[in-house]
Amino acid sequence: MRLYHSIHAPNARRVRIFLAEKGIEIPLVDVDLGELDHRQAAFRAVNPFETVPVLELDDGTIIAESVAICRYFEELTPTPNLFGSTPLERAEVEMWQRRAEFFLLLPIAQVLRHSHPAMAKLESPQVPDWAASNRVKAQAHFARFDATLEGRPFLAGERFSIADITGLVALDFSKPARLDIPEEFKNLRRWWVDLAARPGSVR
Predict the structure, then answer these.
(1) What single-letter DSSP state applies at residue 154?
(2) One domain, residues 72 and 120
């Protein structure tokens, strides 16, 4: 079993954090996105969609996409539970995982991919207006997540979950995207600091 990843890819980092929280260690295969390794024939044979992370099992089975990989390991190692243990918990975790993905990680990633000079090789053509549009969206969503986190330690309630992993990776990605989180969003900033202090929050 091995995980194809990149230290610069937020989705690959989501899986690494998930594994760290579970106490699982597996071999890592680095894919150099800067050198466009993911677009070479050798990697396309593993994942024709040219994205990381990708989990390759011992029998050659391939599982791509970060949440799918995390669900696989959740089934193998259910403790600590990171997807919810009751029907209601699972629904709430899924809801907040998707919201963190669509309303934080996605717009922040689009700002970076369409505005940072280092991303020009990976995002061609870059569309500055798309970056500007997503910058506004991300900042609006910061306010919504700040309100949600009033009086609660984690997105899906009282327990750390995959939704928090996605949120942490998204907010950390705001730094290279040059997206500031206003000081007034104290709940959001407190949550971010608390998550970053967890032992599993690997970079």
Answers:
(1) B
(2) no
| Residue-by-residue pLDDT tens, the chain, 203 positions | 999 999 989 999 999 999 999 999 999 999 998 888 899 999 999 999 999 999 999 999 999 999 999 999 999 999 999 999 999 999 999 999 999 999 999 999 999 999 988 888 888 898 999 999 999 999 999 999 999 999 999 999 899 999 999 999 999 999 999 999 999 999 999 999 999 999 888 76
Domain enclosing residue 32, as ranges: 2-76
184 assigned to some structural domain: yes
CA separation for the pair 74, 71 (Å, rounded): 5
C-alpha to C-alpha distance for 149 and 115, rounded to whole angstroms: 29
Asked if 176 and 106 sit in the same domain, the reply is yes
Residue 44: CA count within 13 A, CB half-sphere: 5
Looking at the fold, whether 95 and 169 belong to one and the same domain comes out as: yes
CA distances from 200 to 20, 140, 160, 188, 194 (A): 5, 29, 12, 19, 12
Q: How many domains does the chain have?
A: 2
Using CB atoms within 10 Å of the CB of residue 151, give its burial: 0 to 12 exposed, 13 to 18 middle, 19+ buried.
exposed
23/27 Cα distance (integer angstroms): 14
Residues 72 and 93 in one domain: no
